[in-house]
Amino acid sequence: MTQWFRSSEGALHRWVEVGDGGLVLREALFDERVRPPDLLPPSKPVPWGAAVVAASRPELARVTWRFGTLGARIYHKIYGRLTARTRPAATVSDIEPVSRSDFAVVWGRARSDRQCTRRLDGPLPDGTRVTGTVEAVPWGPGVTGLFVRPASEVPFQAFVDMGALPGVPEQWPAVGTAGEFEVLDVRIDAEFERTPNIQVRLRPTAPLPPAVP
Question: What is the mean pLDDT of residues 110-119?
């Protein structure tokens, strides 16, 4: 039976989802001493500072299964490392059960914190320069964005949003165009029971040659 708990230890405030045998499945850990990311909307404050962990054990297992240690390192950098293996001990101050819905709200906030926190080190930190080739423009020039096949050192799908491309469709690059790109973000999609995916968000460091000169 799945249960949810919250506990506090000094400046740390922990919310956990616990499965059979007391194993922690998900953990959201907030630290009062850490300022929340500025990218988050100010209308949704929490009283416990920023999330330093928003990690899921099953999610990490799926990412590691597909992408190996590199995927695990990226996951840890984005969502932190689980600090609790089993439910908080009864000796921990302020431990109390919470509802599924309350945990869901806090979990969502913790994930937003972590996803909006800039990554300045670790694998593919923000601002990393990579080379790549335009692989597909599936929606056509001027719509949504395009996919890039990065160099071999980046074994993940890469995407350039239309906001980082010219506003005139005729100035978009053609499939096969090579260029240099900057890493804006790395996103992990592994939350549900499906094949996990890691996508790197890029923008060109300089205008790419247009398909229509």
Answer: 89
